[in-house]
Amino acid sequence: MSIKGKAYVVGAWEHPLRDIPHLSTAQVHAECAAGAVADAGLSFDDIDAYFCAGDAPGFGALSMADYMGLKLKHTDSTETGGSSYIVHAGHAAEAIAAGKCKVALITLAGRPNGSRTGLGDAATHGERFRMGPPGGSGGGINEQPEAGFENIWGGSTHNTYGMCAMRHMYEYGTTSEQLAWIKVAASHHAQWNEHAMLRDVVTVEDVVNSPMIADPLHRMDCCVVSDGGGAVILAAPEVAKSLKRPLVKVIGHGEAPKGPGGGRNLDLTFSGAAWSGPPAWAEAGITPADIKYASIYDSFTITVLMQLEDLGFCKKGEGGKFVADGNLISGVGKLPFNTDGGGLCNNHPTNRGGITKIIEAVRQLRGEAHPKVQVPSCDLAIAHGTGGSLGTRHGAGTLIMERE
Amino acid sequence: MSDVQETAAPTTRRIPAPSQNLESKPFWDAAKEGKFLIKRCNACGEPHWYPRTMCPFCHSTDTAWMESKGEGVIYTFSVMRRNTPVPYAISYVTLDEGPAVLTNIIDADFDTLKIGDRVKLKWSSTGEGNPPVFTFAPA
User: According to a count of CB atoms within 10 Å of the terminal CB, is the N or C end of chain A lower?
Assistant: First the structure.
């Protein structure tokens, strides 16, 4: 059974704040949900399915579902890191296509910056969000099978993605200047987004001259850290057609985990997109050449480059050439990407960028992106994400949508 | 980081003690005796890393420990230069036996380190009573 045409994205809302010291995390989830409900022209009583990942406080989907007073037929707390929400959209389309539910809400929200503010003594007790390189396991018992062998090496997102970039450069001659073009394109888009954290347009020289964080990734190769969130609602065709919003139809989905795979023939130059992309293209019945706009997860510049190759926008190893010279800038290049400024410039709520990838794709398909970055006649878009770590274990999710 | 007792500027990153479970304990017990073990499948003959009971290639549970020579080449690496008291190199090293191992490269000039460099096992202490860990240094 295909999900093609069986579900529509009817609501999408992004939290406008990037630093949220004054709300609880549940409040931010609920604000995002209310934003998407209003955007769709629905009410909370219409929602019969709820999807969330590890950023949702509490027990799977149950705590937030109860907090928001939802009466549900279907819940899903699939966790693939930052790509979870793209995977959720695929799962929501599957559940709707199977008749298990009609209106599915997906939320993401978190406050890595603001979570301790205002709590006084309470902030010194209990769980604490940890930033930066993990300090390791510090001994003890851990049933996660790889933990003892891997958590001791000071692995962080920076240096594990750095290892991917280093190998990609070694095998294909990719350069720091080519990677820098990805950040340059994102900055060109972010200048028009009033909510973006980094709105200054930067140059290739700015990027390669920014401080080295983890070889070969510079500071400007890295995404921002932000509070924030967003929500998306998918609905059955008859619900979508009863609403007043432009019709954005889900036509293809794919997902795939990838890991070191027992260490045999380790290849860090490709991502799970190589496996999540083909079934999504086949289901949609289109090719990368048909895509007018692409939301591509941009935790780091290398993440974008590898995923573009793996999704088939160019040949493997030619990503550097593909992204150079402004090819990702709306109105300039052939493949406008992340026209909200993406994770590199706009936001990366609680270190998870999946939902904003869907939201900006929906804006583009509706013709509601900022006029300076809106792609003319945008009828086919992709939202693709990678969650976890590209250098160890990650989950890829691909969603292809069409304006009807 | 706050648990690190330092009296002078460190020159190498302090590596924490590894966590263990029943499946990994034999590896760490052997490490205490200076033996670097990997696992090989008796059914398909393939060695794998990290060591586990089920072969990730043929799914047989007939796997056995074998001692690795601890020699190999750098598949990739990245030197962490910020938010750390001292730069350190995370790396995947491809062992001569086949599997690639996540590790740290130590005792090396990080500015001249290259993919393809040959490296060999050099145990690093994680403190009194704890097992040492399998770091690698230029051969």
Answer: N
Average pLDDT over residues A144-171: 96
For residue A174, how far is the Cα from the chain centroid? 24
Best of A163, A164, A170 to disrupt the B interface by mutation (most B CBs within 10 Å)?
A163
Residue type, B134: F
What's the one-letter identity of residue B100? A
The predicted structure's pLDDT at residue B9? 60
Say what the alpha-carbon torsion angle A96, A99, A102, A108 is, to the nearest 10 degrees: -40
Tell me how far apart the alpha carbons of residues A224 and A347 are, in angstroms, rounded to a whole number. 6
Burial class (CB in 10 A: 0-12, 13-18, 19+), A264: middle
Residue (of A396, A308, A403, A330) closest to A362 by Cα position? A403
Q: Indicate which of A264, A300, A393 best probes the interface with B, i.e. most B CBs within 10 Å of its own CB.
A: A264
Contact state of A154 with B80 under an 8 Å Cβ cutoff: yes
Answer whether 0.90 is exceeded by the pTM.
yes
CB A260 within 8 A of CB A160: no
pLDDT at A33 over 50: yes
| Cα A215 to chain centroid, rounded | 24
Chain A contact for B59 (CB, 8 A cutoff): no
Q: Would you say A387 and A394 are in contact if contact means Cβ atoms under 8 Å apart?
A: yes
Query: How do beta strands A8-14 and A228-235 pair?
Result: antiparallel
Please give the C-alpha separations between residue A267 and each of A315, A390, A392, B39, B72, in angstroms, as whole numbers.
16, 11, 11, 20, 16
Interacting residues of B60 by C-beta distance below 8 A, sequence separation 6+: B41, B42, B43, B44, B54
- The pLDDT value recorded for residue A119 is 76
Check: CB of residue A328 under 8 Å from CB of residue A296. no
Complex confidence, ipTM: 0.94
- Alpha-carbon distance of A189 to A338, in angstroms, equals 8
